[in-house]
UniProtKB/TrEMBL annotation:
Residues 4-117 form the Dihydroneopterin aldolase/epimerase domain. NCBIfam families: folB, folB_dom. This is 7,8-dihydroneopterin aldolase. Pathway: Cofactor biosynthesis; tetrahydrofolate biosynthesis; 2-amino-4-hydroxy-6-hydroxymethyl-7,8-dihydropteridine diphosphate from 7,8-dihydroneopterin triphosphate: step 3/4.
Amino acid sequence: MDRMILNGMRFFGYHGVIPEENKLGQQYIVDVELKLDLTQAEKTDDLAHTVNYAETHALVKFIVEGPPFKLIEALAGHIASRLLDAYTSVNEVTVRVIKPHPPFDIHFDGVTVELCRKRDDYEQQAPAE
């Protein structure tokens, strides 16, 4: 399976459990890996046969800069769900959300949550309409 990877997208958001995080906000770094068949895009050189990464970036930005989540796990899960909803050609998505400066009195490079969601699993969990 082919992959499209968007690395190091940086956004400012207000996510967190601590009220100050919701007031002051902070930077978040998001990586997204999409697994899909890119054979037709390769052969035709046509954007219609792939995922537009500018639109993907805009969707992730909208989510991260939008209403706050308490947990970055929930933020990552929402990004994964929205990407699977938006792009039916994507078979699997991995979302990595990095919170580089958690508000703790400890020194480390941040905390990362990585979720992997497959279309088959996602569609089985979706509520029937």
